[in-house]
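Work Package 3 (structural annotation) set out to generate three-dimensional models for the target panel prioritized at the project kickoff. During this period the team completed the workflow that converts sequence records into discrete structure tokens, so that structures can be stored uniformly alongside our sequence database. As a representative example, we reproduce one entry of 337 residues exactly as it appears in the project archive.
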Amino acid sequence: MINRVLIIAEAGVNHNGDIEQAKKLIDAAAESGSDYVKFQTFKASKLVTKSAGRADYQNSNTGNTDSQYEMLKKLELSEDAHLELISYCKSKSIKFLSTGFDLDSLGFLYNIGIDLFKIPSGEITNLPYLRKIASFNKPVVMSTGMASMGEVQEAFEVLLDGGIAKSDITVVHCNTEYPTPMEDVNLRAMNDIGRKLNVKIGYSDHTLGIEVPIAAVALGATVIEKHFTLDRNLPGPDHRASLEPAELKEMVRTIRNIERAISGSGIKEPSSSEIKNKFVARKSIIAVKPIRKGETLSESNLGVKRPGIGVSPMRWDEVVGSTAMKDFEPEELIVLE
């Protein structure tokens, strides 16, 4: 049985405040074969103070001097835009998802029927936020960027105390630098989270390229989240650390192949597809020169060659020193009584 990885194509704010661009992102996500396309739901006035600074990557990627508030204000999606995008997702057969960044946004997402809630890394220490999420009693994916294991544990316990079943929680390893340097990925931390919390694990990726999320699937990730954009050269905070549509499609294709590759029984045994090759690739004990009946079989008159339809070379010691029960011509398979 193949355990299907949930793939979230993170459009985020890469729509640049333009609903038509958001629809084009939905088109690309649907074409890629991703399970969800995810946006971000927030009111800048409820998310950030007007004096808050921006991250270094936001400064370098935007090329302007807007405050964080001014930057986010331009990237808000209205409630009507959410409903329009949900309808558009249905027409494209891909699920809509959005991360809420404040309590009112969470309530709005719940009221419009979102079936999965994503906790972003920045909210993992926000107790009122975590309790609000827990009150919905919906499946949760929790990112853990910037967090210590102790902080992850504490947030996880808030969700459990709020009534969410452990089986409905996936804890996602993440690094919030955009892009994340390879030496800072620390991918094995994902498995450490799984062992310590006995919970489903996933990975939210901000590296350049697709190698790390693919490796995460091979290591047991059940959820993969990856930013994508229509064009990395577009203005905005997240475009440069995002995949372009063809890369997103390739990532999904590769993950689906990895799913099949790791879906076996885990028991070392011949597969149904390779059994037919056994007799072609393996070898048998043969005569290398004429051998007469009654002659002693020895290392001087025996050899090993394909095909493997005769006596296995693993019986070499048993055959050497025995007596030929019939005449053998060179390259004839040895047969025992």
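Residues 183 and 207 are 10 Å apart (CA to CA).
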